[in-house]
Amino acid sequence: MIEVVRLSKRYGDKVAVDDVGFTARPGRVTGFLGPNGAGKSSTLRILLGLDAATSGTASINGKRYRDLDRPLRTVGALLDGAGPVPERRAVDHLAWVARSNGIPPRRVGEVLDVVGLADVARQRVRKYSLGMGQRLGIAVALLGDPEILVLDEPANGLDPEGIRWIRTLLRDHAASGRTVLLSSHLMAEMAGTADDVVVIDHGRVVAQGPVAEVTAGHPSLEAAFFALTGDRPGPGR
Ligand SMILES: Nc1ncnc2c1ncn2[C@@H]1O[C@H](COP(=O)(O)OP(=O)(O)OP(=O)(O)O)[C@@H](O)[C@H]1O
């Protein structure tokens, strides 16, 4: 379970996250939705111990990330922009992450199979396409067989088949009683993946609840999103 309570983050005068609260529950995929710059990555970075909150708390199974024992075995994460050293081979990167977290080496082969990179595991990461890099990031997230997955824009760089693949992976993870939190600015992707959504705009939560509830009165989740955020679909959105 993930709990975010009255979380705020300021960068100088800029309020990036403003009194945000939500819960991501076991057995459900929770979608964290918002336009670019809404505060999604800032919230997830605090949750994962990469940044400090100005006020409020973000916890994983009741603990701050930094207080988790062997964190990768509790929570697997994929963050925008985070990636392995380009000169490293994918398999070596995974083996290094596994070693540093006390994860059995056999998991490396298992996750390479799950993400469909087994045949290219010995290639250097710099030769990977965007989509392959994204799959490698997901492999790292799965390495510790974690109860909780936190993924920032996991569909970035994936083709339609890749998007369908990750949707199935996340649905299966939740169906086995585990917790999934994923951020996206892509409504269509979220409508088919999430059980619950948290909609954030200008740092504040503007709606949250089961997809059907948030969508009620609108023709689609996309229409609800644009009505809630006052934004129009356009380039980069
Ligand atoms: N390190 C930083 N210093 C100053 N401002 C920042 C910093 N990180 C984020 N911000 C600002 O905080 C706001 C929220 O950014 P954040 O990256 O959390 O949004 P986001 O919803 O994840 O958007 P995106 O999808 O574009 O990543 C933005 O206005 C951004 O410019």
From TrEMBL:
Stretches of the chain forming a coiled coil according to its record: none
Family stated for the protein in its record: Belongs to the ABC transporter superfamily.
Keyword Zinc annotated: no
Name recorded for this polypeptide: ABC transporter domain-containing protein
Record-annotated ABC transporter domain positions: 2-227
Pfam families for the chain: ABC_tran
Keywords noted in UniProt: ATP-binding, Nucleotide-binding, Transport
Species this protein is from: Streptosporangium longisporum
